[in-house]
Amino acid sequence: MDFLTVLQILDSTIRLATPLLLACLAGLWSERAGIFDIGLEGKMLAAAFFSAAVAYTSGNVWIGLLAGIAASMALSGVHGVASITFRGNQLISGVAINFLAAGLTVVVAQTWFQQGGRTPQLPPEARFSNIELPGAVTRIRDIAQQGPFGQFYSELISGHSIIVYMALVIVPLTWWVLYRTRFGLRLRAVGENPAAVDTAGISVVGLRFAAVAICGVLCGLAGAYLATALNAGFVKDMSAGRGFIALAALIFAKWRPWYALSACLLFGFFDAVGNRFQNIQLGEFVVPVQFMQALPYILVVIVLAGLVGRAIPPRAGGEPYVKER
Amino acid sequence: MTTLKQLMGAAAALAISATGALADGPAIIFDLGGKFDRSFNEAAFTGAERWAEETGGSYAEIELQTDAQREQAMRRLAEAGNNPIVMAGFSQATPLAEVAPDYPDTTFVIIDGVVDEPNVRSVIFSEHEGSYLVGMLAAMASETGTVGFVGGMDIPLISAFACGYAQGVVAVNGDATVIANMTGTTPAAWNDPVRGGELTRGQIAQGADVVYAAAGGTGLGVLQVAADEGILSIGVDSNQNYLHPGSVLTSMLKRVDVAVYDAFTTGPEVETGVHVFGLAEEGVGYALDEFNAELISEEMQAAVEEARAAIIAGELMVHDFRADGTCPVQMQ
Predict the structure, then answer these.
(1) Fewest CB atoms within 10 Å of the CB: A2, B74, B171, B288?
(2) In this structure, what CATH number is given to the domain that contains residue B241?
(3) Splitting chain B (332 residues) into consecutive groups of 10 residues, what average pLDDT does each group show?
(4) Within an 8 Å CB–CB cutoff, is residue B9 touching chain A?
(5) Residue B58 burial (CB count, 10 A)
(6) CB contact under 8 A, B36 and A115
(7) Does domain A3-307 have CATH number 3.40.50?
(8) What is the ipTM of this complex?
């Protein structure tokens, strides 16, 4: 295995980790404020559909992105109203959102485009193209001609869509807001002890809605990335369980932004390795492709069961706040 | 309580009915990829539409949403009196074997599967022969001597595509490398364009400059990445040349539309038993149209036509993976 192969796997890791990372951070914001959210998958899916559909109709990917974020935030709003205002069960609301998104996207897509629940293929201007940093070469075959540094720069650093760079910026931003601002302190407090926050005269409901809204924005980015950057259009169920992997990554990361980055990169890496090496030959024994494809999930179980140590969720997570009894 | 039952019954009926079932007419059941997958199911749909246009008749159709609906859908169409009932996709074979004996007066047609019942027509294609021809084209178009294959679900049918392709590649260039990857082991592998794209990138990184996708909806991701990266790709089942003009080298045609059209036209009297659609029957082939005319030179076309004639004449045998579960050509 040469240097370029390693770089290519890492490059693939970044592409595969980005939707996980955005969804994981979305969950982090929500759960830090005490709102469990297993509807990440559904929000991603809704955002993927609406971003692709609007990008196709308007011919502008940025308008598509806004539509995707709006769709995801609308579902966040439903989750917020159900679980904050009406104090419903957050898990049930999340499951409902997943089902709603899975069905609704296909039905609406069929009504709008009559292509069996998918959007038409997006033209280049309705997609996020890869950003080429100055001096980088684009095509995989040209990259192989470069020196080690050129390969590193062109393969790994350059040539991702803008959402990838945005996701990487959102990690320190999340950390800074949560740990270095008054808003972040209050938001974390609302997830640990909402009564104390309420006593201090700060609106618990307001803070929780803010957190859920941020969650919606990030899920919207994740979904738009799937449909308009990695792919050229929406296909039914295209989120393919990534929202749930993101939840696993969130627990693995113990609800912390930097850990979330490394957890998502790790899961992306497993996935990339599984894609790249199928049927590895070890002497006489051939590792079957089925094993390589199951590997990410096997490792998730091992990592979650053994290596992570004790992951303590926010104390008030999952419980609706009741002011007085 | 009864109202509730009625409501639930109505909901269940709605869930699987795409259009109102028409008694007596022919019917078709599409597989999970959906009838607009630009590939296998869409070819079946094209055949059904051609029949409807030419005869002015109408047909009933069901698009399956989950595996659990298969048997229910078949029984529903059979009880409504539809005849013949065409089923697209190998996954329908097992439930059909259970359903067919219950409706001896209904003729069933299964595409890509074999069901040994007196009232079932099993249509299978010689995908290995068509794949052999596109494999030759791939090897002639390749500059690096490395070509790729992305399969959908890991099943013998898809391995037959891969194996035929690899044999065609090696026939042209004995030193060529064939990289073959499968997307997954569950039906979800037919609808995962993200993974399809990643597999393609991996193959390009290993030197492939022609990639053949036999993966249903996943293949769209393969063709997209190939176009983005400036290499050639090969489509499958339907003619996919138009998707990315200048990047799709050709498409391995599998005339599912002809099989459906034939069954619909002949009606309930369609001959049962196993029918193989090979090169000789024009059941498989490669696509040549205005979108790829510049990619296929006259020499390439001549070489492929020669091989085609040799296969039809029986002078050239393409090994079928399904016969013994092995492939004579080593793939990476």
Answers:
(1) A2
(2) 3.40.50.2300
(3) 50 46 76 79 90 91 86 91 89 90 92 90 92 94 93 90 94 92 83 86 89 89 90 90 90 91 88 89 89 90 93 90 86 78
(4) no
(5) 14
(6) yes
(7) no
(8) 0.78
Q: Which domain holds residue B308?
A: 128-253+284-324
Give the pair of three-digit tokens for residue B251.
Answer: 């498409």
Helix axes B298-313, B127-141, angle to 10 degrees: 150
Tell me the pTM. 0.81
CA atoms within 13 A on the CB side of B17: 13
Question: Is residue B108 domain-shared with residue B219, that is, in the same domain?
Answer: no
The number of distinct structural domains making up chain B is 2
Give residues with Cβ within 8 angstroms of B35, minimum separation 6. A116, B41, B42, B44, B45, B61, B63
Distance CA B266, CA B196 (A): 39
Chain B interface, best mutation among A12, A132, A138, A235, by max B CB count within 10 A: A235
Does some domain include residue B121? yes
Residues in Cβ contact with A76 at an 8 Å cutoff, skipping those fewer than 6 apart: A43, A212, A213, A215, A216, A219
Contact A296, A271 (CB under 8 A): yes
Residues 6+ apart with CB under 8 A from B197: A230, A231, B221, B222, B224, B225
Residues 6+ apart with CB under 8 A from B118: B104, B272
Burial profile B262-290: b = 16 or more Cβ within 10 angstroms, e = fewer: bbbeeeeebebeebebbbeeebbbbbbee
With tokens 């090696």, the residue in question is B170
Does residue B176 share a domain with residue B311? Answer: yes
pLDDT digits (tens, 9 = 90+) for A113-169: 877 778 888 888 888 888 888 777 767 667 777 777 877 887 788 888 899 999 999
Q: How many CB pairs under 8 A join A and B?
A: 80
Nearest by Cα to B171 from B311, B269, B69: B311
Interface test with A, best of B17, B38, B67, B194 (most A CBs within 10 A): B194
